[in-house]
Amino acid sequence: MANTLTKMFGRTIIHADTDDGAITLTEMTATGEGTVTGANIVEIFYNIPPTGTIDIDRGGTSVYKLVGNASGAHLVGHVDFQSAGIVLRGTNTADIGLTFTNFTNGLLTLIVHKEH
After folding, report:
1. Phi first, then psi: what are they for 93, rounded to 5°?
2. Tens digit of pLDDT for each residue in 58-104?
3. What secondary structure letter does DSSP report for 73?
4. Per-residue exposure over 34-72, b if at least 16 CB sit within 10 Å of its own CB, e if not
5. Which of 39, 52, 83, 100 is at a distance of 20 to 30 A from 62, taking alpha carbons?
6. Rounded Cα distance, 112 and 42, in Å
7. What pTM value is reported for the model?
8. pLDDT for residue 69
């Protein structure tokens, strides 16, 4: 699967399984949407192979790392920051970077709320 961005006004959904060093605010902007001034990661869905890892960074600074389940099963889960009224830490104006290690048959989905 190639990484895909589903863009709509106020929100972008990122589906990824390969490295992307810089998902920019411009890339997250939907057609006809005004200037995006910030992007807050509010939810993370993941399916990580047993020896896999995912490192999420903002502007090159690591802000969240997920590590697979060494027991042999995929690690599947969901982190919901918005239910607590918070967002994933990091600079909300910086690019989102994704680094995948030992990642076969896994998937990461990020829900990003945009600021204007």
Report:
1. -100, -10
2. 999 999 999 998 888 999 999 999 988 889 988 899 999 999 999 98
3. S
4. eebeebbbbbbbbbbbeebbbbbbbeeeebbebebeeee
5. 83
6. 6
7. 0.94
8. 87
